Amino acid sequence: MKERLRGFRAVYSFTFKQLSGTKSFKIITVLIALLIAGGLIVGSVVGAGRGKDHGNGTGANGETTEVSQVENVLVMDESGLSPIDFSAYLKGNKVFENIQFKDFEGTDFSEAIKDSGVTQKTVILQIVKQGTDYQLKGALPENSLLKEKDVKKLVSALSQAFQLVKLNKAGLTPEQITAAMQSVDYSYSNIGDKSNNVATVIVKMVAPMLFSFMLYMMLILYGQSVSKSVSGEKTSKLVETLLVSVRPDALIAGKVVAVAVQGVLQFIIWIAALFIGLYGGDMVAKMVHPGYTNPVIAVLNAVKNNIGESALSPAAVLLAVAFFFVGFLFYSVLAALAGSMVSKPEDAASTQSILQLPIVISWLLCYFVPLNGNETFIPVARYIPFTAPFCVPVDTLTGAVNLWESTLMLMVMIVFTLLLVALSSRIFKGLILYNGQKVNLKTIQGILKGKQ
After folding, report:
1. Where do the TM regions start and end (predicted)?
2. Core-most of 23, 114, 218, 347, by most CB within 10 Å?
3. 367-421 confidence digits (pLDDT tens)
């Protein structure tokens, strides 16, 4: 094994320095990390500020909290519950607390609009009893500056206050009124069914989608770099001289590992920037706006607390990163295999299907098959080297698989990666003399059997 990997360190060091030592790589890596961290910090502070703004904007449920344009209300109370002090019930409500209320003795709207207190920003409120029910009616005088939506918002708020009025008139204590007005939430699910759990929905849909897309983009970008690097060495006139001091296995492994380390290192820096921005932004936002709760962190805590004992634990994170690296390495070796089959530089694009088809098919299977309710596919896909990189890291992070199961899957992935390295190096060595010639399956088969 030591002889087969002769020259690995030299190839790895040269390739890694060549790829990551450039100014463009350093600038892009640092710039994107700063944009991620800075954007999240600014977003958290701005979001917290909007959430705390009760004067104007929107409330927690998306309802407008703009101060009402209504200045006064003329109340015609025919409910029999007089006197009603709406001002006391709206106290503390920044939308309506500045409205002045005045009682009107009478039941005729045409008489009410003649009252001296009526202005262009007055609402006439009539409260009537119809059987056992009560009805609140709002009306605007002619030439009013108010709009229909102003009346609707006011009457809606007053109808809620009127519920308290009725309970108070019934002789209930403040504690009893508070208990009676408590809202009741309801949900429906089968026993043992967690399909309605927000954390479960995120794990089943959002997390695999984001991770798969990220892995797909990295494999496409860095996979092409591996393929071009290997094919460039193969079509170089110095390749015969190079192979005197470096074994094919070391050449393939050195180039692939260098690109994989570069890609994963860049990925780790950006993920670290994401968490720094997320938790740093939450810290800054709480300093500026005490009591603020970051919704993203709340969701992460929900995932951690509701699915799997090992979810987001340090051991799970380390295993997930290790599996991500090995899976990325496996597909990088596959890209090297594609590059090994290139006989001319202009043929490099035609071999990319060897890399792209398994990536696309594996991603589609790992994402869409479970969504269709197939629960038997993923347990099998976790041990298949093509599909495992798309499902095992997420399953490990979320606790869907135990740590020992994830370790076993990692060992299987390493074995397949080493076998693929051996296969790629053998094909690379066997096709050295085929520069400029067409390579077909029969040629590949002969190389693997040792006839070429």
Report:
1. 27-48, 198-222, 256-279, 315-342, 354-371, 408-428
2. 218
3. 777 777 677 888 898 899 998 888 888 888 777 788 899 999 999 999 998 888 8
Same domain for 110 and 212, yes or no, is no
32 and 77 assigned to the same domain: no
> What six digits make up the tokens of 11?
């190839």
Total domain count for the chain?
Answer: 2
- Give tens-digit pLDDT for 241-296: 555 567 767 777 787 888 888 887 888 888 888 889 888 888 888 887 776 777 77
Out of 131, 149, 180, pick the residue that ends a domain: 180
CA distances from 118 to 78, 273, 414 (A): 19, 60, 82
Given this model, what pLDDT does residue 62 score? 42
Residues 6+ apart with CB under 8 A from 176: 167
pTM of the model: 0.57
Average pLDDT over residues 111-120: 84
Q: HEC string of 410-435?
A: HHHHHHHHHHHHHHHHHHHHHCHHHC
Question: Based on the domain organization, do 76 and 203 belong to the same domain?
Answer: no
Domain range holding 441? 8-49+197-448
- 102 within 8 A of 74, measured Cβ to Cβ: yes
The whole-chain average pLDDT of the chain stands at 75
Q: What is the pLDDT of residue 411?
A: 94
